[in-house]
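This section describes the prediction task in plain terms. A model, or a person checking by hand, is given the sequence of a single protein chain and must write out its three-dimensional structure as a string of tokens. No templates, partner chains or ligands are provided. The sample shown here is typical of the held-out split.
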Amino acid sequence: MKFVEKWLPVYIKAWIQLIWYHRDIYPRETFSWTNYHVFNLPNHIPVTVNPELLKYVDELCDDLLDKLKQLHYLNFYVCEYDDENYVIERYCLDFGDINHLDKTEGSTDQENVVFDEFRSSIHSLIAYLEKLPLLEPGKYTFDIVIETVEMSLGHMSNENLPRTKENMGKLERDWNWIKYKDPSNDFSTANDTRQRVKMYSLVGCDLNSMVFHQFAERIVPQDSNISASIE
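The expected answer:
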């Protein structure tokens, strides 16, 4: 449906930048609160003023739309800057129940409902993020991982495609953008008896073909010797 292509990138851009801001992935003074007002939320959404990061998010959204038919999970990992294998938080959009076969355009009423669903979902994320303890600035970074179903990558080069700008962009995404990580390794130290992983269910979207679930996970330290910044 065309309105999915219209509103899903808007949602993803807000989703990513809210996590960047509230989890201190980038300094808060590098975000603007005056330009981005989405889904009729009462407050504006923080937007980075870094043009390279804006370009990164735009390209990521293009990649997601290209792979939407095979998309299962969109994972946002918060990990230690010095050890990216040490994940302390995971934010996930689960597209496993999306109806990829629905080719209908959808009515204006449906578009309005999707708009409302996205607003509720973003509001749920904001409410969750605002309750979390602060992380130590500069200590953590992020990793975005897309998990797909029945997708074979790196084969577009075998197709006899015209060398247009659009086709070249799709070719680059086919080779470079997708990344896979074994879900069992999401929290590499989760089996440590001193800590546990807690899951939080957040509001997603449920309307005909546009279905996704949202949840968050984080390590809850059980030992005072573990960094207090994630307690």
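For orientation: The chain is about 30% helix and 25% strand.
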